[in-house]
C-alpha cells in the first residue's frame, strides 16, 4: 500500500510549522438549519451518516449522494436536541436545500430554515486552543464538538467547532461567523493562507471539490470518505448501491495525490488531457485537480484498481508519482 506523505514533507516551504505557529483560512459556506422532532430521522434518511442515536453536541461528517450512490455534497452536521445545522463544505448548497424540501412529507415534523451564508474561519495549528482561551473563548470538554459563542460586544452569535474542515491530520479549531459580523483584530492579525496555499492543503488532504472530484461521477468510497458512510443504519438514499459496493468489493478505483516535476503549464491541455496512462499505454485513471508547486505540479487523481501500486504513471509525457491523500480513508483495499 502506498504511504501518506506527512504534512511537513510537502508543505514545509509554503506553510509555517503548525506545531508552533498558527495560520487561518477563510471561506464561505452554506449553513442549512433544520428544526423539529423529526430532523435527525430526516437527515438519517437523506444522508450517509448515522443520526437517529447521535447525541446533541456532536459533529458528524456526512455525504449527500444520488440514488446511484454518487457524491453530490460533502457535509458537516452539527447535531441538536431537536434539529441540526448542516454545513455544506463542498457542493451546491441551494440544490441540497431544494432536494431536502422535495423529500419532506406533510407529516414530517421538520422545518427547513432559510439557507444562510457563513464565514468559515479555520485556525490551523496546535496553539489554536491557547489563542481561543486568551480571548475568553472556552473550548468544550471531550464529547461536545460544537457550541454557540457570543461574538463581539453583543453583535451576535458565532459557532465554535472542534477540528478544521481539513480533517484530523490538521490540528486546530473552526468558527462559523455570519458574514455581516466583522472579524475581531485578534483574528485579523493571524496570518491567512493565500488561495494557492489553501488549495495545496486541500489537495494534500484529499478533500473533494467541484468540479474535479465532486461532479456526479464518483462515490464516497472512491474518494476516501468511508468514515462518512454508515453501513449498518438501515435504509437511506443511495444505501442499496453503497452497500452492494462493500459487499461485493465493487470499488474499482481510488483517490490519490500525485506529484510531477513537470511544470503546470507544460502538462497536457485540451480534450482528454486528464487521462493517466500506465507504462504500457493502458488507461490507468484520470486527473481530477492540478496546481503548481514550485517548478513542478501536484494534484488529485482517481486511479484504477490495477494501477494503485504502480510506481510510474504518466499524464502525456509528464511522469507522476502517487501517494495516499492524508485525510482519505478507504473501507476496502483493492
Supply the key terms.
334 residues, alpha+beta, Gyrase A, domain 2, nine-stranded antiparallel beta sheet, six-stranded antiparallel beta sheet, 7 helices
CATH class of the largest domain: Alpha Beta
Q: What global shape is seen? A: globular
Q: What is the CA-atom radius of gyration, in angstroms?
A: 20 Å
Strand content: 25-35%
Provide an overview of this structure.
The strands form 2 sheets. Strands 1, 2, 3, 4, 5, 6, 7, 8 and 9 form a 9-stranded antiparallel beta sheet that branches. This protein has helices spanning 7-11, 39-46, 93-103, 128-134, 185-188, 195-205, 239-247; strands at 23-35, 59-65, 71-80, 83-91, 111-112, 116-124, 146-151, 156-162, 172-178, 253-260, 275-277, 283-293, 296-304, 313-315, 318-323. The protein is globular, with a radius of gyration of 20 Å. It folds into 2 domains: 1-16 and 194-206 and 252-334, Aminomethyltransferase beta-barrel domains (Elongation Factor Tu (Ef-tu), domain 3, Beta Barrel), CATH 2.40.30; 19-190, Probable tRNA modification gtpase trme, domain 1 (Gyrase A, domain 2, 2-Layer Sandwich), CATH 3.30.1360.120. The longest helix is centred in the N-terminal third of the chain and has 11 residues, at 93-103. The protein is built from 7 helices and 15 strands. A hairpin with a 5-residue loop joins strand 2 (59-65) and strand 3 (71-80). The chain is α+β, with helices and mostly antiparallel strands and 334 residues long. The model has no long low-confidence stretch (mean pLDDT 90).
Amino acid at each position: 500500500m502506498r504511504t501518506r506523505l506527512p504534512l511537513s514533507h510537502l508543505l514545509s516551504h509554503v506553510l509555517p510549522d503548525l506545531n508552533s505557529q498558527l495560520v487561518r483560512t477563510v471561506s464561505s459556506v452554506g449553513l442549512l438549519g433544520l428544526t423539529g422532532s423529526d430532523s435527525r430521522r430526516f437527515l438519517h434518511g437523506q444522508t450517509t451518516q448515522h443520526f437517529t442515536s447521535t447525541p446533541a453536541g456532536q459533529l458528524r461528517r456526512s455525504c449527500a449522494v444520488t440514488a446511484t450512490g454518487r457524491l453530490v455534497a460533502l457535509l458537516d452536521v452539527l447535531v441538536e436536541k431537536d434539529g441540526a445545522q448542516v454545513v455544506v463544505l463542498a457542493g451546491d448548497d441551494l440544490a441540497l436545500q431544494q432536494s431536502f424540501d422535495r423529500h419532506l412529507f406533510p407529516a414530517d415534523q421538520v422545518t427547513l430554515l432559510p439557507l444562510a451564508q457563513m464565514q468559515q474561519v479555520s485556525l490551523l495549528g496546535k496553539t489554536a486552543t491557547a489563542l481561543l482561551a486568551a480571548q475568553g473563548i472556552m473550548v468544550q470538554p471531550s464529547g461536545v464538538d460544537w457550541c454557540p459563542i457570543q461574538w463581539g460586544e453583543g453583535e451576535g452569535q458565532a459557532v465554535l467547532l472542534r477540528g478544521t474542515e481539513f480533517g484530523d491530520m490538521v490540528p486546530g479549531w473552526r468558527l462559523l461567523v455570519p458574514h455581516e459580523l466583522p472579524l475581531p483584530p485578534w483574528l485579523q492579525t493571524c496570518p491567512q493562507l493565500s488561495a494557492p496555499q489553501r488549495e495545496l492543503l486541500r489537495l494534500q488532504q484529499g478533500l473533494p471539490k467541484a468540479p474535479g472530484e465532486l461532479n456526479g461521477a464518483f462515490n464516497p468510497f472512491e474518494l476516501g470518505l468511508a468514515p462518512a458512510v454508515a453501513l449498518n443504519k438501515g435504509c437511506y438514499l443511495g444505501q442499496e448501491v453503497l452497500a452492494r459496493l462493500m459487499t461485493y468489493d465493487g470499488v474499482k478505483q481510488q483517490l490519490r495525490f500525485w506529484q510531477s516535476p513537470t511544470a503546470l503549464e507544460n502538462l497536457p491541455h485540451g480534450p482528454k488531457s486528464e487521462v493517466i496512462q500506465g507504462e504500457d499505454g493502458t488507461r490507468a485513471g484520470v486527473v481530477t485537480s492540478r496546481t503548481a508547486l514550485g517548478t513542478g505540479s501536484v494534484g488529485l487523481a482517481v486511479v484504477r484498481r490495477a494501477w494503485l501500486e504502480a510506481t510510474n504513471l504518466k499524464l502525456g509525457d509528464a511522469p507522476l508519482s502517487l501517494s495516499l491523500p492524508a485525510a482519505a480513508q478507504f473501507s476496502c483495499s483493492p
